[in-house]
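User: Need the bound-state model for flavin-adenine dinucleotide:
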Amino acid sequence: MKKFDVVIVGGGTAGMLLARELGKLKHNVLLLDRKKNLLEFSFNTLGSFMNVDDFGFTQNVIAQNINTVSLVSKRVKRNIKSNLYILDKKQIHVELLNAIDGNYVTIKTGVHIKNIETDNHGNFTAVLDQNKEKYIAKLFVDASGTTGVLSKKVGLIAKKTQLATGVEYNVKYLGKATEMHLLIGKVFQGGYGWIFPLKNQRAIIGFGTFDDKIVKDLKNRLHKILELLAIKKLVIKDNVKVEGGSIPITPVLDKFIVNNLVCVGDAVSQVNPIVGEGYKFIFEAAIMASKAIHTSLENNDLSLLKNYETDWKNRFLANYQRSKRAQERFFKYSQNSLLMDYVLLISKLYPDARAIRSLSGEYGLENS
Ligand SMILES: Cc1cc2nc3c(=O)[nH]c(=O)nc-3n(C[C@H](O)[C@H](O)[C@H](O)COP(=O)(O)OP(=O)(O)OC[C@H]3O[C@@H](n4cnc5c(N)ncnc54)[C@H](O)[C@@H]3O)c2cc1C
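Assistant: Bound-state model below.
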């Protein structure tokens, strides 16, 4: 049985980027995913502040350029000028797959990892699939998203994680192509909504919530939002295909490694707490992880994996903690329409740059 340098469980956002980076560094990697087709998703568009060049993508991944974020509560609207993007998720993953070096990275789909084997020191020796087939490596990566198949087994993340869930429709769009809308407050069913414009007068309208009490009836709630006069002026629902999924909203974590197991992405809740932007933050984390894995393998020293946690903390911890507090406040305000109107009105006193720092979760330039 072949022993790989690294077995990555999960060929989504985190797993694919990590496989690309480790392939570049000439490590033998096995990437496993339970899906048969890595380009099949439960939703297809992303809002993001990321600069796509930074992560090696072409401009083809951009579905729409946005220059205005419109925050909308029951009675108040605030337009914030900022450049961001609606991204084509499938195109991102096509480019990732094309960039993965097949000389070093083997991809196996239809492999559902169920179990692990460890030695007496707690180091992983193998992961096992639905047919009890074993995959062995020096290091293992959990990139299995909210499933957290390995991170949960070693207690890095609670077995029952709190999830925010979202549903979306692709609709006809009557608004400005470069204006994205964020809908907040009780009038929008006590959760939060978004309208992401696409090309050709189409858009994605979605509804999500942090509250597990609201989670059950999401599709009907989105239908109610579609009936609101203000929304009817912006979008027309002309098909029934509903998309969606879940993101983790656990407390901010800062431990991603146990012995020879490294965790990246939703498996350890690396999504930005305030707007749920996962891609940019997970890509950055995966690059940090790839560097630490490389150094650890080169020096045959597991302790060097810790560099990944250190780098992540330096880059993200303060921002994530701050976003998490903002998320908690936001959720409280969004249960009360009047309060949300007031908060939005007050926010107009603050410059756009500050509002965007809060939305993007990048607080680093507070004094600029
Ligand atoms: C509705 C919704 C809207 C979102 N909107 C945005 C947005 O606008 N912008 C943004 O940046 N982010 C957004 N996100 C967040 C972003 O999609 C996630 O943070 C990101 O995809 C997580 O990446 P990941 O690699 O950790 O997990 P995933 O991309 O979920 O990949 C996990 C992979 O692991 C595989 N897998 C799981 N369990 C096993 C197992 N046991 N064995 C083998 N394989 C397994 C899965 O099949 C999957 O391919 C959104 C999420 C949702 C749900």
